[in-house]
Fold this sequence. Notes:
There is one protein chain. The protein has 16 helices and eight strands. By secondary structure, the protein is α/β, with parallel strands linked by helices. Strand 2 and strand 3 form a beta hairpin. The chain is elongated, with a radius of gyration of 25 Å.
Amino acid sequence: MPRILPGLRGRAARAIRAAAEPAGEKGTFTPRASFTYPPSVPSWYIGHMHRAMRSLPALLSRSPPPLVLEVRDARLPLTSINPQFETVLQEAPKAQDRVRVAPGRRLPGWRARRLVVYAKRDLVDRRIEAPLCDALEAHGQDVLFAETRRKSDVQRIYDWVCERAKLLGQEVARAASRAGRLYRPSRVSGAARYTPTPETGIRLLIVGMPNVGKSSLLNALRFVGTGKKGAASTHPHPGHTRKVTGTVRITPAPPSLNELELEGQSVDMKALVAQQARQAPAVYVYDTPGIMVPYFGPEDQHGPERALKLAVAGCMKQTLFDPEVLVDYLLYRMNQRHAHAPHDAPLPPYTTLMPTPFLTDDVAEYLRSVADRAPGARQRGGELNLSVAAEYVLEQFRRGALGNRELDLELDEGRPGTLAEQIRARVDAAVAPAHPAAADEAPR
């Protein structure tokens, strides 16, 4: 896998501070004001995604209804929203039934059982978190940011799951006697029809677009809850999970009577039952395939730009896009940020990959410079492979080596208003109109 050469950061930083090239001086460089998007972009809504989407209504029809973790990519806080999930959640059985989540506070079932998790928190500026949470909460979405390798972040999600599982636990006993009555196998596609599931406990669905971190979150929740290692396979390329997995328990199992007797403990059955009643019910997780939107929309609705963002972030199949076009888009966005930065600001992060850093809006010129250091880009005879150099740049962006990786909110690009106002405006334009808070939270 490509990696940054040892010592590159230090040399590049010194070169940036020196700003030796006249072309690298901000006063002599004017970036392009717009980007020419391809007139059409390929879709990537393939068979296993369609089958998984078709299975979600039946999985949401289980009794009691499952909890849902919708995972999004923090680098694409708006583009990684799949509107299909919102539709399926709000049309599921009991979606509008009020659920008591706190004294005097009841929410519609679809909201009480759903938590939005923005994964890859470490790859974005922390300044966006609070304003984005507030803006999405106004639209009925409860949000947490998380880095799945950080236990404290995963613990917050695990605590939310256990708390909401307790609220639904009172339905478990009633559901056990009629388990599967609302579950219609004929409406579930493929392997999901034969996925074994326990008859008791709370189910948890993890949904989201491809490669946003769903399987990593499942493994992290299981480790926090049980101390056991990962149960779901992960891969850096999108589309790795291709079917609804069997259920994985993420809460600790109570000791059996045999285990207690072997430990020499006297078993007080009444106390044991009372103790288990106080604990959160067992929670079993389904890991679902990443589901892409079927159609990105026309150019006047920013469809091609959405597709490019997803491809840059690694959420789309890489062979569908020319890597040089993706790097050209990154070049455009980073130059826009630099154009509105203070005059004495350092050069954009993309210049750290160049032997002699300088500002440029020419992707071919940039990739020829990067190819001097990109592993495998210089071929026999001295010829430069710009596609290999472009893949190297994208890899560095995805691993976090090129500064702020957030691509949706267009912050620090000359937009008017405060940070919170800019984020609220972007969210309001991207998300359906909010439900009135008073109606959502009115006690009943």
